[in-house]
Write a structure and sequence with these properties.
By secondary structure, this protein is α+β, with helices and mostly antiparallel strands. It has 2 domains: 227 residues, 3-Layer(bba) Sandwich (FAD/NAD(P)-binding domain), CATH 3.50.50.60; 122 residues, D-Amino Acid Oxidase, Chain A, domain 2, CATH 3.30.9.10. Helices cover 36% and strands 27% of the residues. It has 13 helices and 20 strands. Helix 1 links the parallel strand 1 and strand 2. The radius of gyration is 21 Å and the shape is globular. The two termini are 35 Å apart. The structure holds arabino-flavin-adenine dinucleotide (FAS) and P-hydroxybenzoic acid (PHB).
C-alpha cells in the first residue's frame, strides 16, 4: 500500500490530522494499535479551547459539539473554603471555553473519517516506522497474522506517550525534559447533576479536588491521591465523602452521589521531547509532550500541534514549499512550553506537596491572594486557560 502521510495513532491527534488532510485532498492512512471501542472507552479531557473548536469546525466535525457542548465563561478557584471566580470572558475580551468530553470529540472524528471512506486500520500490531531519515519512509504492521508495509512521503507519530514513534528515534537525536509529580488524580464519572454550574479547582489541606462535568446530567470529579493508592481502594462512597470534604461547604452540600460509570487513577507528569521532527517523521500530541491535567491543556495542545503540522503538510503538497514542515517543530514547541508552564504552575499552586514544607504552603496561599486582589494576575490565568493564540 502507498499513501502520502501515514499516521500512527487514532486518538484525537491522529484523527484530527487525518481529517484536516482529507479536507485538503491529501491521502492519509491511520494505523491504530487498539480497537475503536477501546479508544472510545478511555475517559480523558473535558475542556476545549476555542482554537480546538475552530479546528473541529474546519474539519467538518463540530455539529454535535455546537448542539451539546456547554459554553463556560468562567471557573472557580477555591482555597481552604474561600472561592474566587475567574471571569474568563471579562478578562479576555469575551473569550470562553467549551465543556465537551474528549470521548465525544473522538467519536465525532471517527464518524467523519468513516463517512469519507478513508482508511483506518484498527488493532494493527507491531506498528514500526522505517527509514524516516532516508529516502524510502514506510511503516510496517501486522494484522491477522500477516505483515504489511505502507510506503509514504511522511510519517506522523500521533501515538501518545507510550507509543512507538518517539521510541524509534535514536537517543542522541532527541532531548527529553520531564517532571513526575508525587501524586495522581483519581477520577470518577457518574450520571449525576454537577455540583456547580462551572468548574471548581479546589486547594485543600487534605488534597486537591476538581469538580467538572460532561453535561448537565453527567459529572466528572477528581481528587488528588498518593501514587501508592489503587482504584480498588476507593469505593464510590469513600470517593464522594473525600470529594465533599475538600470542597467549599455550600458546594459540598449540593454534591449528588450516584454509581460510578468509570473510575481510574492517572499519574501526573510534565514532559517535552525536542525536536519534533526527525527527517520524514513528525511527533504530535502526547507522543511529543505531556502536561498535568490541572490546566486542561493536554488535548488542546495536541490540537495546536495538529494545526501547525497539517498547515505545513498542506503547504508542501499544494505549493511545493517545505517552509511549514521545516518550522513545524520550533513553532509547536514555542506554544508547548507556554502550556507546560501554565499546567506546572496551576499544579504547583493547587496540590498538596507534603514534603515541600510550610514556606511552600504559604507561597500557594500568596498566589491565591495575589490572584484574588490583582486583575493582572487573574488575567494571566484567564488568557492561558482560554488558550494562547496559535
Ligand atoms: P492519545 O494517547 O489520546 O492517542 C494515541 C493513540 O495511539 C491511542 O489510541 C493509542 O492506542 C495509539 N497507539 C499507541 N501506541 C501505538 C502503536 N505502537 N501503534 C499504533 N497505535 C498506537 N487532557 C486534558 O486536557 N484534561 C484531562 O483531564 C486529561 N486527562 C487525562 C487522563 C489520562 C489517563 C491520560 C493518559 C491523559 C489525559 N489527558 C487529559 C490528556 C489527553 O487528553 C491527551 O492530551 C490526548 O489524549 C492527546 O491525544 P493524542 O495525542 O491523540 O494521544
Ligand atoms: C475534565 O473534565 O476531565 C477536566 C476538566 C478540566 C481539567 C482537567 C480535567 O483541568
Amino acid at each position: 500500500m502507498r499513501t502520502q502521510v501515514c499516521i500512527i495513532g487514532a486518538g484525537p491527534s491522529g484523527l484530527l490530522l487525518g481529517q484536516l488532510l482529507a479536507k485538503a485532498g491529501i491521502d492519509a492512512v491511520i494505523l491504530e494499535a487498539r480497537s475503536a471501542d477501546y479508544v472510545l472507552s478511555r475517559i480523558r479531557a473535558g475542556v476545549l479551547e476555542t482554537g480546538l473548536v475552530e479546528l473541529l469546525e474546519r474539519a467538518g466535525c463540530s455539529d454535535r459539539l455546537k448542539k451539546e457542548g456547554l459554553v463556560h465563561h468562567g471557573f472557580c478557584l477555591a482555597f481552604d473554603g474561600r472561592a474566587q471566580r475567574i471571569n474568563l470572558s471579562d478578562l479576555t475580551g469575551g473569550r470562553s471555553v467549551v465543556v465537551y468530553g474528549q470521548t465525544e470529540v473522538t467519536r465525532d472524528l471517527m464518524d467523519a473519517r468513516a463517512a469519507i471512506g478513508t482508511v483506518t486500520i484498527y488493532e494493527a500490531e507491531d506498528v514500526t516506522p522505517h527509514d524516516f531519515d532516508g529516502s524510502r519512509p514506510r511503516v510496517s504492521y501486522r494484522k491477522d497474522g500477516i505483515t504489511h508495509e505502507i510506503e509514504c512521503d511522511f510519517i506522523a507519530g500521533c501515538d501518545g506517550f507510550h507509543g512507538v514513534s518517539r521510541r524509534s528515534v535514536a537517543g542522541a537525536a532527541i532531548a527529553q525534559f520531564e517532571r513526575a509529580y508525587p501524586f495522581g488524580w483519581l477520577g470518577l464519572l457518574a450520571d449525576v447533576p454537577p455540583a456547580s454550574e462551572e468548574l471548581i479547582y479546589a486547594h485543600h489541606e487534605r488534597g486537591f479536588a476538581l469538580a467538572s462535568m460532561r453535561s448537565t446530567t453527567r459529572s466528572r470529579y477528581y481528587i488528588q491521591v498518593p501514587l501508592t493508592n489503587r482504584v480498588e481502594d476507593w469505593s464510590d462512597d469513600r470517593f464522594f465523602d473525600e470529594f465533599r470534604r475538600r470542597l467549599p461547604e455550600d458546594v459540598a452540600e449540593r454534591v449528588v452521589t450516584g454509581p460510578s460509570l468509570e473510575k481510574s487513577i492517572a499519574p501526573l507528569r510534565s514532559f517535552v521531547a525536542e525536536p519534533l521532527r526527525f527527517g520524514k517523521l513528525f511527533l504530535a500530541g502526547d507522543a511529543a509532550h505531556i502536561v498535568p491535567p490541572t490546566g486542561a491543556k493536554g488535548l488542546n495542545l495536541a490540537a495546536s500541534d495538529v494545526h501547525y503540522l497539517s498547515s505545513g503538510l498542506i503547504e508542501y503538497y499544494r505549493e511545493g514549499s517545505a517552509g511549514g514542515i521545516d518550522n513545524y517543530s520550533s513553532r509547536a514547541l514555542a506554544r508547548i512550553w507556554k502550556a507546560e508552564r501554565f499546567s506546572w504552575w496551576m499544579t504547583s499552586m493547587l496540590h498538596q506537596f507534603h514534603e515541600a514544607g510550610d514556606f511552600a504552603a504559604r507561597m500557594q496561599l500568596a498566589e491565591f491572594d495575589y490572584i484574588t486582589s490583582s486583575t493582572a494576575a487573574a488575567t494571566t490565568i484567564a488568557e492561558n486557560y482560554v488558550g494562547l493564540p496559535f
